[in-house]
Amino acid sequence: MKEYLSLSEASELIGKSKETLRRWDREGKLSAVREPMSNYRVYKREQVETLFADFFSHDVVDTVSNYVEPNNEYNVLELFAGAGGLAVGLEKAGLKCVALNEIDKWACQTLRKNRPNWKVLEGDIKDFDFKKYHNSVDVVTGGFPCQAFSYAGKKLGLADVRGTLFYEFARVVTEVNPPICIGENVRGLLSHDNGKTLQGMISILDEIGYNVVPVQVLKAINYKVPQKRERLILVGVRKDIELKYEYPKPHNKIYNLKDALQKGELYDTNVPKSPGAKYPQSKKEVLDLVPQKGYWRDLPLDIQKEFMGGSFHLGGGKTGIARRIGWDEPCLTLTCSPAQKQTERCHPEETRPFTVREYARIQTFPDDWVFEGSMAQQYKQIGNAVPVNLGTEVGYSIVKFLNQLYSVRK
Ligand SMILES: C[S@@+](CC[C@H](N)C(=O)[O-])C[C@H]1O[C@@H](n2cnc3c(N)ncnc32)[C@H](O)[C@@H]1O
């Protein structure tokens, strides 16, 4: 295995910024050495891995709980519901889904198959009118796909973004008038169009009568999910309500791949057998050479060059390429297609992508949650989802807010 890591590689592996690593160097917490030819900082891999193991230490007793019981029956309207990751999470927190909207036929079949009593509204959101839910829903949630707004430099209003899916989210919120609404998205929304897209969304929510809580990106590993996925949460509280919404507190116990796939605290059995994608033979031969927690830099130089093609000379650590996950670490973010180029997350011991049920476990779906459609459709639905356990923790934060709201209003 390669003995030294560059600044970018070390930063990506530990999940801390380069600036933090430079500071640690100054403070003596993680000392870099200089590469003699280039004079760049490099880090001893062994030292980085020890620090990494401390971050992901498994022998921690979790002292944090966000659990709270609902005092009433609370209703959710879930938009862009996909295969139900967020919906199941919210349900586990005690919220009741009154209706879900989703355009994808297979995802709708998944929802109906698992919850025949859920009202699944299949089709394009723009074709549905939600006025009949006016004042009867406590929270509107939805992971609207991110789209650029054409921005004329003024404060954005709802009418300016007509035709986008955020417009539809905001339109439904105005039709339903819930006390609280929650949007979820990828971290990239923070920097999308230099932050203007997010600013536009915040100003639109303001215009339709909602104060936006300072936006946070939640790391799934802090919410009982054995995966380094992140979700940006956008919370709007109706302006006539003076209560403060609080994000769920991060847990101190971090789960890893072993917890996802083997019997333990997260699941009381090993992962069930299921079909799974395969790597083409040429990729398998390359990945056979990568050790657990290793990636493309662990390959012989000629193979590195061939495998990486044009990316070989580009900057950045690119530690997610040709990656074999270790049992004792959380998995890297799952994508919608497990054998996709340059985002390989290989099984720790066998040279293959994770199976459908392994994927579902890494996203903390229950084993009995069935996915409909072809194998590719199933992977897509799982890869698109909010991890169920993250959804549950966000659900507790909503329940807490609503309990307080209705106790004040009694
Ligand atoms: C990020 S996924 C949502 C995942 C879901 N929250 C979960 O936890 O499983 C976004 C979803 O929006 C759906 N979608 C995209 N355009 C839509 C539209 N016009 N109307 C309704 N749903 C749409 C996609 O099919 C996709 O399933």
Number of strands: 13
Outline the low-pLDDT stretches: none
Helix-strand sequence: EHHEEHEHEHEEHEHEEEHHHEEHHH
- What molecules are bound to this protein? S-adenosylmethionine
User: What is the CATH first-level class name of the domain at 74-253 and 389-409?
Assistant: Alpha Beta
Rg, nearest Å: 22 Å
- What is the rounded distance between the termini? 64 Å
Superfamily (CATH H level) name of the domain at 74-253 and 389-409:
Vaccinia Virus protein VP39
Looking at the overall shape, the CATH architecture of the domain at 74-253 and 389-409 is 3-Layer(aba) Sandwich
Strand content: 5-15%
Q: Share of helix among residues?
A: 25-40%
CATH topology (fold) name of the domain at 74-253 and 389-409: Rossmann fold
Q: Mind describing the biggest β-sheet?
A: 8 strands, mixed
Please give the count of helices: 13
- Structural class from helices and strands? alpha/beta
Rounded mean pLDDT is: 93
**C-alpha geometry:** globular
